[in-house]
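Dataset card, provenance and construction

Sequences and ligand SMILES were collected as paired inputs. For each pair, a complete structure of the chain with the small molecule in place was predicted and serialized as structure tokens. The example below shows a pair involving S-adenosylmethionine. Curators did not alter the output after generation; any descriptive sentences attached to a record were derived from the structure itself.
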Amino acid sequence: MPLDEGGIFPYVRAVFTSFSSCMDNAFIATTFDWDHRTPKTWQMLVNKGLRKMRIPIKISPAPPSMANVESRMNLFHLLAQTIAYKVPGDVVELGCNAGDSTIVMQKMLKQLAPEKRLYAFDSFEGLPEITGSDLADGVYGKGFMAAPLELFKYKFKKLGLELPVVHKGWFQDTVPQGLPERISFALLDGDLYESTKHILPHVYERMSPGAIGMIAVYYDEAVFPRRGVSMGYKSPGVKRACDEFFGDKPEKVRVLYANEYSNGFFRKR
Ligand SMILES: C[S@@+](CC[C@H](N)C(=O)[O-])C[C@H]1O[C@@H](n2cnc3c(N)ncnc32)[C@H](O)[C@@H]1O
């Protein structure tokens, strides 16, 4: 029984009986200083001073702008599930930016499923021209989040990791031809309605039964309202595109807690 239908035991059994699916995940907190919840020594000293002065404020490292530790933990466990269940197909990321989540997946595949290839897609010029309902949302602008391909490559080199297959360009030009034939896991992180709407059908049709699609930002006010959290953590167009797409499909997107973010995922029937 799939986990999103309440069956935890098959997953636990699959993980524990599959020796090859065991791996440490502390690197998710420590790689490139991704653990923004733990204050640095100097910040602890400042906090101590603030406490002494009875000032009720605590400082900690700035939250990262692309993903947080909770999102990466969700990514780790969802990808681990598809590996433990031996879902056929390769792994893709649509919207890889500077590669921080790509690195998590590549490290996991290297250790747990070296036979799978990882494919990463991005313009490496940030978001495209904002149009239609994305324009009405008023959250993003053209070129937001631009991260050059050189930075992506540098991060992989620094960690001694093999580069994934990289497709540079706009999704509409790269995704239809560049996706692998079979997909076992997909991380969808395009932030816009238009980008998400474009990629979903291409990815969905290639997903094996049991494959997981993780939606990096899926904010559902009805499940977990986050008042006061900025719209950049909510990317409202993504949920609109997903809900439209899954309106006539048997799968449903589930929400996963991720602190500032809300992640979503679906499992292909
Ligand atoms: C939030 S970032 C991805 C963050 C990354 N997954 C991570 O966790 O570090 C969104 C990325 O999607 C890319 N993007 C969005 N729409 C796109 C499109 N239509 N074509 C190509 N890239 C796109 C942007 O360039 C941006 O780098």
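Derived descriptions for this record:
Residues 66-67, 95-97, 100-101, 122-123, 126-128, 145, 147, 170-171, 189-192, 195, 216 surround S-adenosylmethionine (CB under 6 Å).
The chain has a mean pLDDT of 92.
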